[in-house]
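Hi everyone,

Forwarding the result from last night's run.
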Amino acid sequence: MENYYQILGLSEVATLSEIKLAYKKLAKAYHPDINPSPIAEEKFKIVSTAYTVLSNNDLRRQYDVKLAQMRLNAKRASIRAQETRQRAYKNPYRNYSYRPPVYRPANNASTERKATYYALGIVASVALLLYIGVTIYDFYQDNF
């Protein structure tokens, strides 16, 4: 929601005469008869809406309540976010973010075959080293 006070360049305690003066100044600058730009026409509509709300005491009161409620909600949200960050910081088991699993594309047959041969080569090498170690151990046990 746009802040009508800011649109008219006023403070929230502006008097009705200040509101009228600000509206007249902006209406002269953005009125479609004076400024044919489409942007000026949009700004004039916004300025007119702001003036309509702020110049009527009942509408202005409702707008002020709505504005105060929005500020209060924003403040509450800020406090809740800060409390959440503090709780997360104090929690030793915190998880900062969920990371979805990364899926790798399926390997083709030749890649699978190479991986199998590589694994078999490692197993055979370990078995050969173990056999040599046991043979040497037995040789030293028998002869010395």
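Helices lie at 4-8, 16-30, 38-55, 57-90, 109-143.

Cheers,
N.
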